Amino acid sequence: MKSTRQKVLTDSFRVFASQAKPILHIHTNSDYEDALEFIEYLFDIAEDSHNDPLNDLITIISNSIEEYESNQEELVKFEQEAQTMDPNISMLRTLLNQLPNAGYGQKRFIPSFLANAT
User: Fold this and answer.
1) A single GO molecular function, which one (predicted)?
2) Degrees, nearest 5: CA angle 69-84-62
3) What is the DSSP letter of 86?
4) Which of 55, 30, 51, 32 is nearest to 42 (CA)?
5) What is the pTM (predicted TM-score) of this model?
6) CA dist., res. 35 & res. 32, Å (int)
7) With contact defined as beta carbons under 8 Å apart, do 68 and 32 qualify?
């Protein structure tokens, strides 16, 4: 016979799972974006402690995000390219790609000998 505690935990989990289904089982880009937003929220409020149950939730959602990403052709291709790229060049490209978004022009930061080569 099941104990009352087992029943309460099972019922509680079913309620949680039904509400969290889109982030526990990501099927669409919208679900993916929601999961990323939610995990960012959890990072902000979770304590840096093994005792905080939110860290368990972060692990569960991280696994869901990882599973979704591993099935997305574009993300898999990007990851494969990133793994083969020289880390120094990768970092430089990332920094240069971020500069225009910060209101700076790339040419301002490219050394003159490289700017003349392009």
Assistant:
1) core promoter sequence-specific DNA binding
2) 25
3) -
4) 55
5) 0.62
6) 5
7) yes
Other CB atoms within a 10 A radius of the CB of residue 67 amount to 11
Residue 39 CB partners (closer than 8 Å, separation 6+): 58, 61, 62, 65
In tens digits, the chain (118 residues) has pLDDT values of 579 999 999 999 999 999 999 999 999 999 999 999 999 999 999 998 889 999 999 999 999 999 998 888 887 787 788 788 787 887 787 777 776 555 555 455 555 555 555 4
Residue with tokens 């959890």, as numbered in its chain? 42
Q: Alpha-carbon distance 33 to 31, whole Å?
A: 6
63 vs 58: CA distance, rounded Å: 9
